[in-house]
Amino acid sequence: MTRKCFLFLCLVSFPFCRSGSGAGQNDVSRIHVDVVLVQLNVAVTDGKGNYISGLAPEDFSILEDNIPERTATFEEGNEPLRRLADVASSIGPPLTLSSARASQSPASATVAAASQANAPVLWATGANVFILFDTSNYMYRGFVFAQDSIADFIRSLEGVSKVALYSYSRDLSRVATLTSDRSEVLRGVRSTVAGDDAALYNSLLLTVKDAAMLTGKKAIVVFSNGPDNASRVPPEDVAELAQSTGTIIYMISTQEAEAEPVSTAVFERMSKATGGRAYFSKSWRDEKRAFASIRDDLAHLYTLSYYPQPNPNRGWRSIKVKLVGKDLEKYHVRTRDGYRLIQQAQTSAATLSSSAPESASQ
Question: Which of 49, 126, 278, 351 is geometrically suited to a Cys-Cys bond with 251, CB 3.0 to 4.6 A?
Answer without folding.
Answer: 278
